[in-house]
Every structure is written in C-alpha cells, then in structure tokens.
Amino acid sequence: MFEAFWNFLNRVSDSDGVYVGERRRELALSNKSYVTEYHPCVRVKPVARWEWRRSKGEFAVDFSSEANPHVNISGMSGFGKSTLCKRLIKEIRESLHLPVSIFDVHSEYVDFTRQFGGEVHSPKESSINMWELDGVSPAERISENAAMLKRILKLGDIQAYSLMTCAERAYEKRGIRQNEKDSWAEEPPAMRDVYDCIAESMGGKGSSRQSYAGLSKRLYPLLMSNVFSAKTTLPFRRILEGLNDFSMAELGSSEAQALFIETFLRKLYSYMLSQKLADGIRLFVVIDEAHRVCISEGEELSLPGRLVSEGRKYGVGIITSNQMAKNLDRAIIANSAVTFAFYQREPQECEYMASLIAGGTDNERREVVRSKIRNLRQFECIALTSVAREPLLVEVMPLWRET
Ligand SMILES: Nc1ncnc2c1ncn2[C@@H]1O[C@H](COP(=O)(O)OP(=O)(O)OP(=O)(O)O)[C@@H](O)[C@H]1O
Ligand SMILES: [Mg+2]
C-alpha cells in the first residue's frame, strides 16, 4: 500500500518521462568465478558473461533526451503491442500535454479515444484531397502524387506516365495551368476527376488502351468511399490540439489506408509550416499495424519512413507497431530512437530483433538477447533507447489494470 503511494508520488514528480511500466531486468556483464581446471589443483577464474540481472523501478521514456522522438514496437500478435501504444498515448497526453493522432487500421482505438476525451474521425464524415496544391506548382503536385500512387498501388512505369497525363488534363479542365500562376488558386480536381480523365482515355486503341484500363482498375477502389473525392475537411488546427483517432477500417484496403496516412502527413506538415509550428515536437502520430500501411519500394521509402529518417526535423514523433519488423520499412526500424521488442517466435525475425537490440558483433550477447525474446511473457518486452546504456526488460502496465 505504502509502496504504491510512493510510486504514485514519484510518477507525479517525474513529469519529463513518459511512463511505460516496471523495470524487471537489465542486460549486464557479470564477472562470476568458475572452476577452469581440476588438475593438478583446482583453479578458479573469473569469466565475463552476459546475463539479465534483476532491476527495479519505473521505466519511462524521456523524449527530450532521446536522439529523435520515434518509437518502434515489434512482436507477435496478442503479446501487448496495442496495450503499450495505449499506455504511451495516455502518458504523452497527461505528462507531455502533446496532441496525438492515431491511424487506427482496425478501428480498435475508438472506445479508448472517447474514454480519454478525444475525437473519432470516420472516412464517411471526413475527406482528404491529395490533388490540392498546398503551396506547390501543379507539375510538382502531379509528379509527387504519381510517385506516391506508383509506389503504393504498385503501378508500372507506363501506368504512372498515363496517370500523370490524365492528372494534367484534370487540372486543365479546372482551368489550372502550370505556366499561368494566377490559375493555381482555382478549385483543384479530386480523385474522381482524375479517374474520369482516365476513363475518357480508355476509348483509345491498342496498348495505350490496355494501360489506361489497368490504371483505372487499380484506382477504382479509391472511389468506393468519398474520402479521396472531395475537398479536405480535416480540421488540422484541432488535430494539433488534442487526441484524434482516424478510424480507417471502413477504407477497406491497406493501399487506401496508406494513401490516407501519407496525404494526411504531407498536408499536416504544410499546415505546420504555414503556421510556423515546426520547431520542437508538436504532435505524436501512432501507426498501429504499420507493416500494412507503410509501403516502401526498393530505395523509395514510405512517407512515415522518410519522417522517421529525418529525426526531429518535422516536429512529429512517429510511434509504429508491427508484428514483424522485417515486413516494415527498414528505415523505420533502424532510425527509431526507442525500440520495444515483444515475444517473437519466427526464427528470422527473432534473429533480426536480437541483432538490433544486442548491437555489435558479440555473439554471446546476441544469443542472450535472442533467448530472452523467445521467453518473454505477455506484456513483457525488451526496451532499447538511445540514452540507456543497456537494454532493459520491462513489464508494460496495461491501462485496464489501473481501474
Ligand atoms: N480491456 C482489456 N481487458 C483485459 N484484457 C485485455 C483488454 N484489452 C486487451 N486485452 C488482452 O491483452 C492482450 C494483448 O492485446 P494487444 O491488443 O495489446 O495485443 P497486440 O500485440 O497488439 O496484438 P495484435 O498484433 O494482434 O494487434 C490480448 O490477449 C487481449 O485479450
Ligand atoms: Mg495490436
């Protein structure tokens, strides 16, 4: 009873850190003595070994000391990734008083968001238009969107080129021309307008007809809901103030969800620049099930991947969670200052996480970490930060155990 009260007092005074859970063990080099020879006499020698030494106290992440404000959480299904995300969101709101936006792929944060006084946005009610210029020229917007759609929808080179010509036509139909700067203020086209231009081009002959038909088939699912076919209605000012959940299950495909997230982040950043809000951390973004929606291709990173690689520059901290790190942008895993690894069974994945956490070339150290990852219990994880000397075994405190 007294201990619980003391812990509570400590937490109230420790306002810099974002509380995660309780420290249970720490990776440490022990110098135990072992018998190394029996003959002619017993000889005892100290041998250095890596071990998980008992550790006590609270574990909190101090984002002001970390190399960047990005967090990656990996682990097998059901071991506590979303539980940790919810803990981090609550603590970021309460200790750092920063806004948090959740990209909710399975719409599983709806009740949680409402419980903490946040706002839930559904694609039925909000829309986002990726073709709005937001301060760049039509040519720049077309080439940026074509590259994004090519990467996410896995379009071929010819399809991407056809998309660019149709998008140019869609702008022209709205009276917007690259070399007439005054025309850039006109109402921009939306996804439906670009799609209609593609449909018009399908009347041609031969291989170009096939390319347009293929393109229209790839873009068609984006028209299922109106989310991409109307003016942007997302209230960025409010998003930069509180807790917001973008419940995206209704969007259906991972591609549509990825396009929503990337367009949102890009627009948010231009809004922050226009409001001169880009220094310091202004917002945390949570992407649960990130392996579904952070879609990179070869050297080309997803936008969340690019933001994570750029460190603190954008003023947005990105928290990603995924079942398998190897299915996610390597840039996200490699550049997140804070990593949490939950239980993992898949051998390659286990090996990868062990190497990431152990670092260096010490095989024994890696083996000790690897075997711990295979023995973690539900809600236990290995935490590695850019400021801590060694990895820690932390037990995450689920929110429901508090009530
Ligand atoms: N409110 C609650 N009360 C009791 N148990 C809960 C509650 N919410 C979640 N759990 C349990 O916590 C466990 C971990 O759930 P969590 O959603 O954090 O896993 P996860 O790692 O995110 O899995 P996935 O990859 O499938 O999303 C589950 O077994 C779930 O049943
Ligand atoms: Mg989950």
From TrEMBL:
It comes from the Archaea. InterPro entries: HerA-like, HerA_central, P-loop_NTPase. Belongs to the HerA family. It comes from Fermentimicrarchaeum limneticum. It catalyses: ATP + H2O = ADP + phosphate + H(+); Couples ATP hydrolysis with the unwinding of duplex DNA by translocating in the 3'-5' direction. This is Helicase HerA central domain-containing protein. Residues 61-266 form the Helicase HerA central domain. One of its GO terms (molecular function) is 3'-5' DNA helicase activity. The lineage of its organism: Archaea, Candidatus Micrarchaeota, Candidatus Fermentimicrarchaeales, Candidatus Fermentimicrarchaeaceae, Candidatus Fermentimicrarchaeum.
